[in-house]
Design brief:
about 375 residues, alpha/beta, Rossmann fold, 6-stranded antiparallel sheet, 6-stranded mixed sheet, 10 helices, 15 strands, binds adenosine-5'-diphosphate, binds magnesium ion
């Protein structure tokens, strides 16, 4: 799939913008603060239903304006579609597909499938477990609106169970009431953990293959889900139910639920060692890059179509050998990459997009024949 064009109105620092993208590599260059990230953020908004860098939708609306609009024309194997997001400071966020408003946010997922990588994503390796859970949940949701809904439902039930633990102090009363929540929570947890494990299992071989490719076979990467045991959702549900009951006294004391998918983690082992503790910054960057490429390949397999890749300010941080190898690996994909400067240009045709003060100039560069 590819993004053909993008039209912005009062989005971030853009008053109005209309621009087209190329089906291959798009190099988005320009000085700091000109609007490079804002442009790719607009694209990601329609893939993720939210910005990859802020949870405050009102930040996306241009200063002193009340309404922002992002319109993308995308091309899938089956044809073109128009995806649109309207953000009102007062009226909230609405999505449209071919000009029809969608009823549930989850319906936007799966139309534009894009993998995003920015320097901030190093927290997937170096940050707290919450970052790794967020990585899984955001990325699984891209292909599956029903997974997104599952996580929302889990959060609601969790909130109810925690409320009970926090507000009631009589153990017998809690025992009377908590089983209803345990049952629902465990059932949703079984489905969530099962889905996450299968995502990790699909990702792992591609990530290992990619890290070997990028490091000329010197590195290996293993990825493990750290949470309740079990293969099927029914097995996981039983494990969770047992732990919820076993930990009741502890949870009562804490006033919240101490086990479940909202506490799970993922371990990335680079050459057999936990990369959170042992990997250098450069290695962490390689791990996240490998993860993102792996995701691209998993999504491609699941969709039967190539998703798009957005690299925000990470390409120029890679050493020249990795930059060259990356171009090689990404042949055939649409790639949007931002940077202040590109030392290595693709050897195939590409589009040079120069961003200056929220204006974009494009120049198509044809492959040099040897
Ligand atoms: N809601 C907004 N309204 C107006 N300008 C904004 C808004 N949000 C961000 N900006 C401006 O956008 C610029 C940053 O753009 P960005 O795309 O992040 O830059 P870069 O080209 O370095 O990636 C800054 O000048 C910032 O002030
Ligand atoms: Mg930027």
């Amino acid at each position: 799939m590819q993004v053909k064009s993008c039209k912005l109105t009062n989005f971030r620092n853009y008053e109005t913008l209309e621009t087209e993208f190329f089906s291959g590599v798009n190099l988005i260059a320009g000085g700091n603060g000109q609007g490079k990230t804002n442009l790719v953020e607009a694209v990601m908004l329609l893939a993720l239903s939210k910005s990859p860098r802020t949870s405050h939708d009102e930040d996306l609306v241009r200063e002193s304006q009340s309404l922002a609009r992002v319109e993308l024309v995308i091309e899938r194997d089956f044809g073109k579609m128009k995806l649109e997001c309207v953000l009102g400071k007062e009226t909230g966020k609405k999505f449209f597909i071919n000009s029809n408003e969608i009823k549930k946010v989850s319906d936007i997922f799966g139309n534009l499938v894009a993998v995003y990588f920015s320097p901030n994503d190093l927290v997937i390796v170096s940050g707290s477990p919450a970052e790794r859970r967020d990585f899984m949940d955001t990325d699984i949701s891209e292909l599956s609106g029903s997974y997104y809904n599952l996580v929302q439902r889990y959060q609601k039930v969790l909130f109810q169970r925690n409320k009970l633990l926090k507000t009631v102090h009589d153990k017998n009363l809690i025992i009377d009431q908590i089983e209803v929540w345990n049952e629902q929570l465990a059932s949703l947890a079984g489905l969530i953990i099962k889905t996450r494990k299968s995502f990790i299992n699909k990702l792992a071989p591609f990530a290992d293959e990619t890290i070997k490719f990028l490091s000329k076979d010197s590195d290996t990467l293993q990825i493990k889900y750290d949470g309740a045991r079990g293969e099927t959702s029914a097995e996981i549900k039983e494990e969770i139910l047992k732990s919820l009951r076993f930990n009741l006294d502890k949870d009562m004391e804490l006033g919240y639920t101490s086990i479940g998918p909202h506490r799970d983690d993922v371990v990335f082992e680079l050459n057999g060692r936990d990369s959170k503790v042992f990997a250098s910054q450069g290695q962490q960057r390689s791990i996240v890059l490998a993860l993102k490429i792996a995701e691209l390949l998993v999504f491609e397999r699941e969709l039967g179509e190539k998703p798009i890749l957005v690299l925000d300010d990470v390409f120029s941080e890679l050493d020249s050998a990795r930059q060259r190898k990356l171009y090689e690996k990404l042949a055939g994909f649409q790639v949007l990459m931002t940077g202040t400067y590109f030392k290595f240009k693709p050897s195939e045709d590409y589009l040079m997009m120069t961003v200056k003060n929220a204006k974009v100039k494009t120049k198509f560069v044809e492959k040099k024949e040897k």
